[in-house]
Structure formats: C-alpha cells, structure tokens
Amino acid sequence: MFWQQLVNGLTLGTTYALIALGYTMVYGIIQLINFAHGEVYMIGAFVGLIMVAVYKVNFFVAMLVAMGVCVPLAVLIERVAYRPLRKSTRLAPLISALGVSIFLQTLVTLIKGGPNPLAFPQVIQDTVYVLGPVKFSTVQCIILIVASLLMIFLQFTIKYTKMGKAMRATSEDYETAGLMGINVNNVVSFTFAVGAALAAAGGVLVGMYFNSIHPFMGVSVGLKSFCAAVLGGIGSIPGAMLGGIFLGIVEVMGVAAGFDSYKEAIAFGLLILVLLFKPTGLLGRPIQRKV
Amino acid sequence: MSALLELKDITIRFGGLVAVDGISLEVKEGNVVALIGPNGAGKSTVFNVVTGIYTPTSGKVLFRGEDITKLKPYAITDRGIARTFQNIRLFKNLSVLENVKIGCHCRGRAGIFGALCRYSGVRGEEKAFVDKSLEAMGVVDLTGKKEELAKNLSYGEQRRLEIARALASEPVLLLLDEPAAGMNPQEKQTLMQMVQRISGMGITVFLVEHDMKFVMSLSDRVNVLDYGRKIASGTPSEVQRDTTVIAAYLGKEVV
Amino acid sequence: MEAVMSILTNPYYIQVVTMVGISLIAALGLHLITGITGQFSFGHAAFVSIGAYASALVTIHLHLPFVLSMLAGGLAAALCGVLLGFPSLRLTGDYLGITTLGFGEIVRVVFINLKITGGAGGLAGIPRESNIFLVYIVVVLTIWGMYRIQNSRFGRALVAIREDEIAAETMGINPLLYKIKAFAIGTFVAGVSGSLFAHMMQYLNPSDFGFARSFEILNFVVLGGLGSIPGTILGTAILSLAPEFLRFVKEYRMLIYGALMVTMMIFRPNGLLGGVDVIRVLRGYRNRREARR
Ligand SMILES: Nc1ncnc2c1ncn2[C@@H]1O[C@H](COP(=O)(O)OP(=O)(O)O)[C@@H](O)[C@H]1O
Ligand SMILES: [Mg+2]
Fold first, then answer.
1. Which chain B positions have a beta carbon within 8 Å of A285's beta carbon?
2. How confident is the model at residue B254 (pLDDT cuts 50, 70, 90)?
3. Which of A23, A43, B125, C234 is deepest in the core (most CB within 10 A)?
C-alpha cells in the first residue's frame, strides 16, 4: 500500500515538477511570479486533446504540437505583458500576469463553449504492470519516462549549451550579464520558451492521467506547482524537481491518510511550514543582506 | 577619559572571506576619529558591526561600557549611535522634512492610538519633531529645501540630508561612511565645517573617508585598516609617518 | 426628476453601491499593508472571510448588537493576522506574498470543512443588519483613520520600512513590530468589511473568498495607485463597477477585464493616480486660482 502510494505520489509529483520548472526558471531570471504559466499548461492540455480527438494523431505527436503552440504563446505573453514592465515596481508585472491569466481562461472558455470539463480520449492501451508490491499503469510509466527524459534534456541544455550558460549567467546577475554582451532579451524569451514546452508536455500528460481537462485547470495546479518551486528553493532547477516530487508524494500520502477534504490545503501548509524553517526553500541559497 | 566606543577583537567572515580580522579600537568621547584604508579593507563592515546590521563572528562591541554586540540596529540607535551610509539610503520618495522627522522616531512615543486621536501630547510631540528636524537641517544647511523630495536633491545635498536625518535621532556617537565622496572641493570645505560644528555640539564623530586632507585636518585620531586588519593607529601626524601605512596605502596618495 | 429618483431608489443600484463601499473598506486595509508598509499580502480575502464568519456566528448564536459583532469580526481577523504575521513577516517580498496566499487557501479549505460555518454549502440565515448608510459611515471613518495614521509618527515608520527597511531600522524603527502592527490594523479593517458583507448578503460561502478575490482586492489597490488613498478609492470604484458597465459585452466581459488589467499596467505601471499627490495638486490649483484674482 505504502509503495503504491509512493509511486502514485511520484507520478503526480513529476507533473508538478514539470510545471514548477517554468516558474523557477522565469523567477530565477527576472524575479517574476509568472501567474499565467498555469494557463500555458492548460492550453497545452487542450491542444493535446484536440490533436488526439479531432486529428487522431499519435499521442507523442500531440504532445509535440502542444509544445509547438505553447512556446510561441509564452514568448508572446512575455513580449506583450511583461517586457514593458521590467523596470517598474514589483507588483505591476504581477498584476499584468494575472490579467493575462484571466484573459486566457476566458478565451478558452469562450472557444470551448463553457467551463465544464471535457474527457480526454483514452489513446493509450491501459495495461497494468506489476512489480513486486506496486502496480504501474501504462500512463504512469509514460509520465515518469517522458518527464524524466525532459528533465535530463533540460539539465543538459543548461549545463552544456551556450544558451544554457547565458541563462545561468543572467540568473546570477541580470545587469552584469547584459554588460558582458549577453543578449538578455533573448535569454528571457528562451527561458519562457523552455518553461512553456515543459508545461505543455505536463498538460498533455496530466490530461491523459486524470482523464479530464477544463479551462480553469491551470489555476490550482499552477499555484501548487509554484508552491513546489518555492518549496524546493525558487530559482533552483534541482529545487523545482525536488519540490514537485516532494509535494506530489506528500499530497498523495495525505489523502491516503484520510485528509481527503484538506487536499487543496496540503501544498500550502507544507510550504508555510518549510519557509518558517528554511526561509528560502529546501535548496535555495540563504539571503545575506548587503549594506 | 574613558572610551565611548570600544571594539574588542572583532572578526567577521562572509563564507570564506575574512572581511574584518581581529580588530580592536577605541573611540574617545568628544573626539573625531577616522577609519581609513583602501577599498575593500573592511571599513564599512566595521560600521555595520557597530550599528548591529552584521553580527560579528567573534569579538565584542562596547558602547559606554555596555555590550551591544548582539543588539538589533534599532536598539543601538536608541542607545545613541546614528550613522550615514556609503551608498546613500534615503527615503527617496519622501520630502526632506519627512526624512529628518523619521530620524526623530526613536525619541518619540506616539503610537497607533496617538495617531488616531491626536491628543495634545501627540500634537506637542509632532511640533517638537518639526522643530528638532529644522534644527538638524540647519546644521547641514538644508532648511531651504524642506519640501523637496529627497530623490530630487543633488548628490552632495543627499549626503548632507543623511547627516541631518542621523542628527535628528540625538546621537551621542555619529558614524559617517565616506561623507565627502562625490563632492567637489568647495562642498568638501563646507562639509568639513559642518563636521566641526557637529563635534562642537558635543557629538563624538567616527568617520570613514578617502580624502586625506579631510581626514588629517579633522581627526584627533586615525585608525588604518588593510585587508581586514588594523595596521596602525595614532594621531594624524603619527600615522602619516608610519612606514607600514605608507607602504600599504598612503604612499600613493599623500605627499 | 422621477427618473433620477427611480435610479436612486432602485434596490439593485443600492446594492451595487453598497458593495463598492464594502470592497473599499477591505481595500483600505490592504492599502495600509501593501501601499503604505510595502508588504505583499495575496490572501487578504481570507481575513475578510474570517471577519464575515466570526461576526455572523456571533450574531446568530450570541444575538449581540451588530456593532459588537462587527467589532468581533474585526478582532478575529486581526488576531489571525497577527498569528500569521509573527512568523511570516520575517520573510520578504514574494515569499511573504506566497505565504499569505497559502494561508488564504488554507482558511478557505478550513471553512469548507467546518460544520459550524455550514461547510461548502455555506452559512445562511444571517440577519440583515448592515445597510448603505452604515457601510458609508464605516468607509468615512476608515478613510479618516488612514489619513491620520499616514500623517503620524506611526505611519511615517511604516512608510520608512516600505522605502528602505535597513535605513528604517537604523533610524530606530523595529521593522518586524511595525509590520505586525500594520498587519493587525489592515486585517482588522478587512474583518470589519467582512462583517458588513455578511450582514448585507445574509449568506456566506467559502468560494466567495478564494485567492481570486484576494487578487481582486490587490488590483483595487495597485491599479488605482499604490500608496495613495484617492487612488485606492478610484481603483475600487472603477474595478467594482466595471463588470456592471461591461454587462453589454456579455460573455466577453472577463476577456476585456483581463486585457484591461494588462493595458492599464503597461500604460500606468504605478496605477492611475500613482505618483500624483492629489492634495498637492488641489492645493496648487487653489493657489493658482487665488493668484489669478
Ligand atoms: N554582506 C556581505 N557579504 C559578503 N561579503 C561582504 C559583505 N559585506 C562586505 N563584504 C566584503 O567584505 C570586504 C570589506 O568590505 P567593506 O567593509 O565594504 O570595505 P570598505 O573598506 O571599502 O568599506 C569586501 O571584500 C566586501 O566584498
Ligand atoms: Mg565602504
């Protein structure tokens, strides 16, 4: 039972992690809580659904198309709603992000013709594999494998590519990176693009896992994933992965332990608890105030 | 005369870097004492330790014989130490008068209830704050700018406003971190007179400054830091003759 | 004349205008926390809900006069504000924001699960005790109180913390203490607003106080002009009435609302009245008029 819950928690956690990565990378570079990130994830799920249900394409193709739609969308959002506000007060881009978020939710509701959920067609033959005490469904396997591959790919990009180095430099010191000849605007766009690709994949995977998607699905998952990013230490990529998985496991265990009706509060309770003891999250660097 | 401020074997580390390394020094009541040394020597860090912004890794700070090492900055201000910052930290969007009135904060009592009811005691306190602020602004010649926003002042005026704000807290000891930085010779000259005026008011002054003419003509004693260590201390003329000092620092700048 | 009268006595319009007042009270509380003290709070609606439920329960079960249950609502919210503030106000900026947001969500989930508050079904049967006059009396009192606070030793300390916390601390201000006090007052005011809401709607449901509502209140404060009381009033009035005026666009309403939020921020990042000192402008106008005479 415990091991089964652990696997379920891990599956949920990796989807949180996929979305948390987008929050953490953007925050690491421009210190913005990108509240519209949850909506990018939601749109990814819808595009995936359309591809699978209407165009009857293969599941992986659907995921690629979802990424292909979400990447330019996120880059556009940054251009229009955040870039003009990069030098203003902290709250201005935040409000702008909320505006984008409301806009996209309504847009999808209008296009879809109502807020009620849609069922995600069963495209994967769901066999169950038994491994000792735990059962894996095919969908769980796909989520774990795809998410792991994406995260490995991300680590590789950040560690070894030129753009990855530029990202690390920019998140270390935005001003100096600019002075050193890094085109910070490109770095920011690239960061939004990578985050959106991961979120889109997450959307399609979650749609398939929970079998239901709706225009407001990004809100709660988005907030929880942001919690996961802060939990792990915002700005830290391994932190977001750790935070997401940790949160997924705690949430599944909490529900299994009978706190079903408090499910939506578990993430926030955990977050507050961690921040009180480690004010910058599990893997975050401590803040040293400089005078 | 006993020491007003006494640092005993202060060390502070930031990660692997030892910014201040076993420094002991004294500031005697009524004196103007200078702390000099090349950039990065640890001067501002010493000020941050004295004002409670950093807690030293080891060592003690005594003020009027009391151990203030672990006190919070606001408690230290309350006991009579005020300061200015090397990188000006004014309340930029507030007027000059409001900036200085905030300096009076620790000498007042009115709270939330007083704010809402504004009974006569509170009105009297506000009046006293304004008077005291105008007086402090007078010392640094800013009275004419009281309604100006701090961010619209010139650089030199901003530095002087920081001094006025510090004076408003009625300090016994005033720490000035590079007060003349960025000023032209004429402004420096006026500033020198202002520091003398402040010293004449009975306030002990402890200052960091790079301008050697400024330091040598104002100070009663000079302490020299290099790489976090104290390499010399004495009267200005003693320090100027000190060979280690000349080697480390002065040789390049002072004839 | 008759047309004017019919508008003035139309119960729907009265309700809308009363709601603007109730929102304004909550917004003024957040104005003190975020606009004056500079501390992020993304869970303000939770304090409104605590005040609403507490006062409603006091009225229903203890049959106290409304003024007392309003006070109880305010105090309950302030108590929670202080309890949350103590540990979390050490956190800065976005960390404080996300903590308050989390607190708000927890409060909502708790109300969904509590028996005494009617759970997810909501709490009904609250007597109708508040009305437009009472609401606007409280509005005027709150505005007056905020102005008094802003022009006092206490208020200056809060502004100092907003402008530069380290400098404030070296001026003898204990930042944590003052932030907690600001939080206590701001959440008290939120609780009072909640009490008025409860005794106006006569029904409470946890879903009315989610983070969407918290961000709506934050919007009132930011879009009007952060740190400015006239800005907060303007922001609350415009944004609360916008959905009414946007009724003709029907289902595109929220689409336009979202787009407006983005455009307003881009063209006025400091809010409509941000950086405008209304009192100075008025004084200048009066002086100029007198000079012309
Ligand atoms: N908060 C801090 N974190 C890390 N290093 C610091 C911090 N404050 C000061 N330092 C380092 O300590 C050394 C001394 O700095 P400082 O006291 O500012 O020198 P100065 O003599 O120029 O005022 C410098 O190397 C500086 O980089
Ligand atoms: Mg320095």
1. none
2. very low
3. A23
Give the residue among C53, C24, C66 at the shortest CA–CA distance from C216. C24
Taking the Cβ of residue A110 and every Cβ of chain C, the question of whether any pair is shorter than 8 Å is answered with yes
What CATH number labels C2-292? 1.10.3470
| CB-based contacts of A283, cutoff 8 Å, min separation 6 | A232, A233, A236, A238, A239, A242
Highest CATH level, class, for B1-80+171-255: alpha beta
Average pLDDT of the residues in B205-219: 93
Provide, as residue numbers in chain A, all residues whose Cβ is less than 8 Å from the Cβ of B55.
none
| Mean pLDDT comparison of A191-195, C114-118, C281-285, C289-293, highest-scoring range | A191-195
Interface test mutation site (partner C, options B74, B81, B175, max chain C beta carbons within 10 A) = B74
- Calculate Rg over the CA atoms of chain A: 19
CA distance B104 to B81: 13
C103-156 pLDDT, tens digit each: 999 999 999 999 999 989 999 999 999 999 999 999 999 999 999 999 999 999
pLDDT at A288: 65
Mean pLDDT of A213-224: 92
Which CATH architecture best describes the domain A2-277?
Answer: Orthogonal Bundle (1.10)
**Do A268 and C106 count as a contact with CB atoms less than 8 A apart?**
yes
Q: What is the DSSP letter of A131?
A: E
Q: Is the pLDDT of residue B209 over 90?
A: yes
B15 CA: nearest ligand 1 atom: 4
Name the pLDDT band for B255 (thresholds 50, 70, 90): very low
Ligand 1 pocket residue status of A290, Cβ below 6 Å: yes
DSSP letters for chain B: --EEEEEEEEEEEETTEEEEEEEEEEEETT-EEEEE-STTSSHHHHHHHHTTSS--SEEEEEETTEE-TT--HHHHHHTTEEE--SS----TTSBHHHHHHHHTGGG----HHHHHH--HHHHHHHHHHHHHHHHHHHHTT-GGGTTSBGGGS-HHHHHHHHHHHHHTT--SEEEEESTTTT--HHHHHHHHHHHHHHHHTT-EEEEE-S-HHHHHHH-SEEEEEETTEEEEEE-HHHHHH-HHHIIIIIHHH--
For residue C100, which of C30, C28, C163 has the smallest C-alpha distance? C30
State chain C's mean pLDDT as an integer.
Answer: 91
CB B223 within 8 A of CB B233: yes
What average pLDDT does the structure give for chain A? 91
Which residue bears the tokens 């003693």? B238
